Amino acid sequence: ELEGLENTIDDAYAELRSLITDFRAPIDDDGIGLPETPPGPDPVTGEHIGMNIMQERAAKLNGELQYESDPDEGGTLIQLSFDMPRLEDLLKRRGIEVIEAVGSGEEGIKKVAELQPDIVLLDMRMPQMDGLMVLRQLRKNHPALKVVMLTTSTNDHDLLEALRAGARGYLLKDIEPDELVLAIREILAGKTVVAPELSSVLARFIQGEDGELQEDKSANPFSALTPREYEILTLLAEGQSNKVIARNLGISDGTVKLHVKAILRKLNVSSRITAAVMAVEHGIRASASNDS
């Protein structure tokens, strides 16, 4: 029996096989997205060499390099000007990197200068400096920075003051995580977003039904507007969209957009909503004539 076993070991054609049918190594990157066809390596600048090297290595292993990307879209870096670990975790799970969470307004201002986030989520109620003070300082130091008020305050005054100070969003803390992420994306795309629960508040001011925030009307911030710009501003105050304004005035959408940009620049505001609120607070109506 032993001799038979030895003969089997000596004469049998046995081999060990290791079969790998599929091997994947996913890598996430929060940098700027590549186009559908990645550019070749640039020997002068050294750019894009890494992708070329990875493709060569994959080919040597009879594999291939695949990637999914949103062209020209980078990662979203957020600073939370309050300490909410649960919110921070929810945002990270949805692909948004929270680079800092701070506990005071002064600390938030310093960290923005240091970290240069894409967007800041700011509370209205903070120690040392309230949210509006922090917002005004951030807008002064970083005019292009997008700041979103994320708060429990449903106070009408807080909402309008935040928009007038340059906030690009006013959201409530009980917002669903997916809705918050969507709002952040829209704000980064240039829109102004207000919590649906507060839309009626905004509508009251746009329609002029509430006079709580009336200012001294002797000052005329609209004197620099042309007659056409003033006319368009009155229509903005009615809540009309660019398309509706274009149709009513018999001009193109593009022309309306140019006028709106000029209005925002001359009024030193960041959104059409802020301009509309400002107009209503100064008593401007579509039926009013241009006294400027």
Question: In brief, what are we looking at here?
Answer:
Keywords: DNA-binding, Phosphoprotein, Transcription, Transcription regulation. The chain is of the alpha/beta class and 292 residues long.
N- to C-terminal separation?
114 Å
CATH topology (fold) name of the largest domain: Rossmann fold
Q: What gyration radius follows from the Cα positions, in whole Å?
A: 29 Å
Arrangement of strands in the largest sheet: 2-1-3-4-5-6
Low-confidence stretches: 71-75, 210-218, 287-292
| Large-scale geometry | globular
For the record, the count of structural domains works out to 3
Attribute tags:
DNA binding, single chain, 292 residues, 6-stranded parallel β-sheet, Arc Repressor Mutant, subunit A, Rossmann fold, 12 helices, Sig_transdc_resp-reg_receiver, alpha/beta, 3 domains
What would you note in describing this structure?
Helices cover 43% and strands 9% of the residues. With 292 residues, it is of the alpha/beta class. It has a six-stranded parallel beta sheet with strand order 2-1-3-4-5-6, sandwiched between helices. Helix 7 (177-188) links the parallel strand 5 and strand 6. The longest helix has 15 residues, at 253-267. The model is unreliable at 71-75, 210-218 and 287-292 (pLDDT under 50).
